[in-house]
User: Fold these one by one.
Assistant:
Number 1:
Amino acid sequence: MNRPHLGRFAACNPAFNARMIRSMPRPITPTPPAATRCHPVHPAGHRGGHAAIRPAMLATGLLLALAVAAPCPLPADESNAEPVFEHGPDSMRQDDVPRGEVSRHQWHDQEVYPDTLREYYLYVPAAYDPTAESSAALMVFQDGHTYVGEDGDFRVPVVFDNLIHQGDMPVTIAVMINPGWFTDQIEPGRQGWPVPDGVRSNRSVEYDTLSGDYARFLELGILDQLGKTYRIHSDPRMRAIAGISSGGICAFTAAWERPDLFGKVMSHIGSFVNIRGGDTYPGLIRKADERPLRVFLQAGRNDLDNQHGHWWLANLQMEKALAFRDYDHKLVAGDGAHNGRHGGAILPDSLRWLWRDWRETVEDIAQETQPGAGDAADPAGES
């Protein structure tokens, strides 16, 4: 990992400051400079006090102090501005690619999160055939409003259309679901990041809590309802769950608690920090029984650093823990901040990695579900 650039100008270089001060008459000594900013030199740092400082020496020291304490502006090419992440052709509409259908729905829950209302979007690919014997794969996205837009960061309907058409991922039905709000109504298409005045969001409870509640909410609610209309794989190897920020840790928690429901996880700038205890996951991964999961992580060096934790370091800890236990995993790191720009730009390749062996998986499932597939052969052979 590249270290921050500290030396902006000569006056902002700690080594330069020290050499300049050593060349001056004592007793002026430098205060140790901070690692990430310019620091003034204080004549009062001399333990002998101010009495021994002659006026000329004091004036010289004050001039140097002013020079060192002056703001250190960043040159334009050395700023900490987030890099630009460009979308590729797989995130754009192609004329020869059939379009799937996206529909908007609402779900009023009384089972796991009573009295919550939320919107969700259902994507059904053009290649889905309700009369076919084969089932569709499933992928569930948290904070669905940020994944569904065709001009947003992620553009899931566009990317799915292109990758399914190319054969890089299976025919997959996507559920893009928002967190619950405690309200009686939501204006269609208006549930996003802002929460209206007088409305309470249940997002942190649902997403940041380390329990099986959210997976149970999905299982008993929307997924059960979908299963009555669509043929969807029940095998977790053909089911994925994804999210951004707290939605990222939510996706991991759902699969961690219920690997029988989801076998694949995609986290964008996941909040594996101490909002509700998520910083414990690296230790749990290292010590707990291994789950049959495939995990994709995307993280940015310029992500949040606040009272809950350091997002970039938290994702590094997750990657190290997954590597220690030999999980099938991948971390894509960049210089992005706490947003979906990087994750959205790389979504097509991220999905290719997540679903890279889907054809083999379908064949394995078919063989495993054949009559007599579970019968063991006679280990002794013929006598």
Number 2:
Amino acid sequence: MRAITLSAVLAATVLWAAPAAAADKIVIGYQTTLTGPGGIQGEEMVNSFKLAIEHLDNKIGGLPVELIVLDDQQKPQMAVQNARRFIEKDKVDVMAGLLYSNITEAILNSVLPSGSLVVFAGGTASQRAGKECHENAIGVFWNIDTSYREIGTYLKKQGVKKPYLVALNIQPGKDAMNGFKLGFGAEVAGESYTRPDQSDFASEITEIRRVNPDAVVYFIPGGVGFAFMKQYVQAGLKDKLPPYGMTVQVDEMSFPALGDAALGLKSVSNWSPALDNPSNKRFVEGYRAKYGRTPTTLGAMAYDNALLLDAGVKAVKGAIEDKAKLRDALRKVDFPSVRGKIRIGANNTPVQPLYLNVVEKNAGGALYNKLLEQLVADAADPHGKECALK
């Protein structure tokens, strides 16, 4: 009897200690905005994510991929509905993608309490990198306020004394301007916050003339931003005060609407198609060959979304049923980012280089963002100290 009991204990111990078996596939629920004004951006994200999977031989971490793509229609309620479908019907292993911060927040608030794992490429609220950080929410994006902090630092070094700030009157706009003030470290000459549906910027332009600043910094993405920039150029201000912003506001998706109004605009990004590393070369060349133009920062983040997942799944040898181990691997693993050397910080937000670009025309007359310099090698967002994760 004693021998039987000992054997049973040993067998149970071996079973308990055995590593989890590799799954036969990975199911990824990818959600972004595919209709409405933001549809072109979401389409680029999906195209880039799929391109990365193609470059990985249609596998993530060695596992065949089942990719389910849904459109959030830029509506938080639809996004939450899609996320619930991913969990309850599709039984996804991980959710990915996401574009707008309000959509991301709606999804995270809905699914994180259930233990779901979300590895996302789009924006989120600044507090998500701080006091509302969560171990199961891992981003490969950029923080808006971090980018604008570096604009502030750069302009301070350039001797700017009286910057004027213009931003959308939404939380990301406020985050951007707060980030700028943190980096600039001094009083600004003035600031204006515009409506999301605004089309006439005469009052803002008049105020800029009155204040007579020595630099203008703006965060007005999308169609509203195009209208602002065209009116800014028509007012004759661009040559005297070329505004500074994020490259996502002035890139290959913006050039058709902006035209030559984009020439000379300087911007900060966490990526450039000119970066010299194997992953970036493969991404840029592959995207140009497949879609006929240079990709943008949003595409780069989506491509990196897949590369991080690939490295994390490899690290756990395909045993993705253990969500805690997969999550911990994703937070710590090195992966071959198109941005070069980056890492996921303790608050699940990237620590990464940031670059300064300027819009010029290439030899063929096409607009492009010329990489001027690296502003910082390892930009960490300012909210990490408020995050309880280690």
Number 3:
Amino acid sequence: MRKVIYFLGFCSMLSLTGCIAFNTTPYSNVDAVNTVVDLSQKNYEILGVVEGFSEQVYVLGIGGYSKKSLFENAKADMYKNADLKDGEALIYPSTTTSVVNYVVVTKVRAKASAYKIRLHTANTTSTTPKVASNEKLEKKEAVETLTHVPTPTTQEDKTNKTFKLANGTAFNMVYVERNENNPSFYIGETEVTENMWSSVMQDASTNNAKRAIVNITIDEAMNFCKKINTLFAKELPKGYVFSLPTEYQWEFAAKGGDVASKFTYSGSNKIDKVAWYAFNTDKGYYNVATKSPNKLGIYDMSGGVWEMCLASDGSYVSRGGSYLDTKSLCQISSRSVLGDKQKSKKIGFRLVLTKQ
């Protein structure tokens, strides 16, 4: 009787597997009218990103198609979704997979994506043979033909930025990449230092290149942002301005650009490696960028000085602890409400460069 049950169970598994494979009939490649051109003169515009997907379920490793076939199916779906017209093409194709395991069942999803562009054929000078408008060209071939071209100028510059003030002080802004729902931004490699403050605010009373500016109010910090925007108006990336960070921006940067980061402190679980706090400064002051940075190359987001941030409800808070606090207050999650007129020798701020 047990053998019969095993046999029936095995037959059921095969039946299920066969149904799964039957329901994932691959897309056939879709032809489209394309003109293959030399893009070196940047005679095109990006219309957006096109995606395609393909899924397969495997039972005990048995299923319909190989990983390569899943990618091909995803690409074919992408080509179909692109709905290319005359003078349009796909460039920079890429593929990724995600896997979800359910005991004996594994679900694999392949994703293909590429930039959809429109060619400005009126300005095209090409050494590449053109395809007449009434000819058909397989999309896969068109994509591969257009892969090795210069990076489109409409893509965002993802390099860090360096700015130099009138007194010779240079400061770096670190690029922090996000996604389409949360715009990317730049954040200060260090907190605003005394000599940055001195140059922008014309304040000769503070001029230490290694110390964070402290004992200022939120209004004073915002006034600094206003003045530094004026100073660098012609150098800023289009649409970007200096400001105080939102809490979300600050925490994302403190986690090294990884929301899943398990580090207690910014860059490490060992506080002495990345932070100045009450038990390694002997209650004295500290210099910026003298501990290890986090994954993004940002210093002192734990310890150092508390940093001003804009909360989601429009109020202000300070984050990250200071050189006068215990290690529990220097965790990434540490947060304190900040009064409008509050100033302290352990509260400073860090700039972000963000889109308006």
